[in-house]
Specification:
Structural class: mainly beta
Oligomer: single chain
CATH architecture of the largest domain: Sandwich
Number of strands: 27
CATH class of the largest domain: Mainly Beta
Largest sheet: 7 strands, antiparallel
Helix content: 10-25%
Number of helices: 5
Number of domains: 3
Radius of gyration: 22 Å
Strand content: 35-45%
C-alpha cells in the first residue's frame, strides 16, 4: 500500500516487478476537491503471482496484477487519462514463442492490448480503469498491423494470412476507411452484398452488422458510426475503427508511425444463433441480444436523441427484450 500526496508532476511506483506510471493529468483530477489537503490517494499493487517456475509462457498460463486507487476511502474505477502498467516477465522463457500473442485483459474481459519490450522482457500496457488485470498468452490472438501508406495488412501474431489491398487506406473526416473485403478476411468475417439495396452485411463471432453505402441510420449513429461506407475506386470502403470495435476488437493508433493495430481474439466464446439481429449465445447456450443495438432502434422509432449511456449493459436476455415494445 502506497500513500501519495498532492504534487504537480506524475509519479512512478515500483513494486515486486510491477511499475505503475500515473500522469499528472490523473493526479490533478483526483486532487480536485474542495479541501485538497485532506485528500489522500492510495495505490495498491498486488505482486505478480505465478506458479510455473521457469516454464514457457504458453496457452493457459497467466499473470495477474491488481491496481486499486482510492480517494478518501472511495475506490476510483475510472481515471481521467490512461496510466501505464509495466510487468516484468522475468522467469518465463519467451524465446520460442510469438510475444505478440501476449495481451492484457481487464476483469470484464475487455482486451487492453499491450506488448512485450523485446530488449527488457517487460510487458507494457495502458488503461484508464482500475481493478484486476490478467496478462496471458492467447494462442488465437490476432494483431493486425496497417500503415496508411501501405496496401499490406499483416498479422504480427501469425494467425491470419497477409492481405494486400488494391486500394490504399483513405482518411476522411478523421476516420480511416479501408476496403471491406480485406479487413473482413483478415478478421475471419463473412461479407454479404445486397445489390438491390446497396447494403453490406458482415457476420463475425456470432454478431452481424448491416449498413448501406453512403448512409448512416440513427441506429448506426447511436452505435458510433459517424462516417458512412462509400465506393472509392470501385471498392467498398468502410470506417475501420467502427467496424473493428463493433465486433469487439481493440484499435490502436500510432501517430509517430501513422500506423494502426487491431487486436482481436479470433476464437471468442460466443456462437451465432437464429435470433434476429445482433444475436448471440454464451458458452451455456443462453440466447442474448445486443442491448445497445436494440436501444438504438427503440430511440429511433420514438424520435428520441440517439446518444446512449456509456455504462449501458451490452447484452440482455431474450425474455427481457419485451420491455422495449418495438
Amino acid at each position: 500500500m502506497i500513500h501519495l500526496i498532492e504534487q504537480n508532476e506524475g509519479v512512478v511506483i515500483e513494486e515486486d516487478g510491477v511499475t505503475l506510471i500515473i500522469p499528472n493529468e490523473i493526479l490533478t483530477a483526483l486532487f480536485n476537491a474542495e479541501n485538497p489537503e485532506s485528500v489522500a490517494v492510495e495505490v495498491n499493487i498486488t505482486p505478480v503471482i505465478h506458479e510455473y517456475g521457469n516454464e514457457e509462457l504458453t496457452a493457459g498460463q497467466k499473470l495477474t496484477v491488481e491496481v486499486i486507487i482510492t480517494v478518501g476511502g472511495e475506490v476510483i474505477q475510472e481515471t481521467a487519462a490512461p496510466f501505464t502498467v509495466s510487468v516484468s516477465l522475468d522467469g518465463f522463457d519467451l524465446e520460442d514463442i510469438n510475444t505478440y500473442r501476449i495481451v492484457a485483459i481487464a476483469e470484464d474481459g475487455t482486451v487492453l492490448g499491450g506488448r512485450v519490450d523485446s530488449a527488457t522482457g517487460v510487458f507494457i500496457f495502458e488503461t484508464a480503469t482500475t481493478g484486476e488485470f490478467t496478462i496471458a498468452y492467447v494462442e488465437t490472438l490476432k494483431r493486425l498491423s496497417i500503415q496508411l501508406d501501405s496496401p499490406i495488412i499483416h498479422d504480427l501474431a501469425d494467425n491470419a494470412e497477409t492481405q494486400v489491398m488494391d486500394v490504399l487506406p483513405v482518411i476522411q473526416d478523421g476516420r480511416t476507411l479501408i476496403p471491406v473485403r480485406f479487413i473482413a478476411e483478415a478478421l475471419g468475417a463473412t461479407v454479404g452484398w445486397n445489390g438491390d439495396t446497396s447494403e453490406v452485411t458482415i457476420i463475425l463471432g456470432g454478431r452481424n452488422l448491416t449498413f448501406a453505402i453512403g448512409e448512416i441510420t440513427p441506429q448506426l449513429y447511436a452505435l458510433g458510426m459517424d462516417v458512412p461506407a462509400q465506393i472509392i475506386d470501385d471498392r467498398t470502403m468502410v470506417p475501420l475503427r467502427f467496424i473493428s470495435e463493433f465486433f469487439g476488437a481493440l484499435v490502436e493508433w500510432d501517430e509517430d508511425t501513422r500506423g494502426i493495430e487491431i487486436v482481436w481474439d479470433s476464437a471468442p466464446p460466443q456462437t451465432q444463433n437464429t435470433a434476429p439481429g445482433h444475436g448471440m449465445t454464451n458458452a451455456a447456450g443462453e440466447a442474448y441480444i445486443d442491448r445497445r443495438a436494440i436501444e438504438a432502434i427503440y430511440r429511433a422509432s420514438r424520435g428520441l436523441p440517439p446518444e446512449l449511456p456509456d455504462d449501458m449493459d451490452r447484452l440482455l436476455t431474450l425474455e427481457e427484450l419485451d420491455e422495449f415494445e418495438l
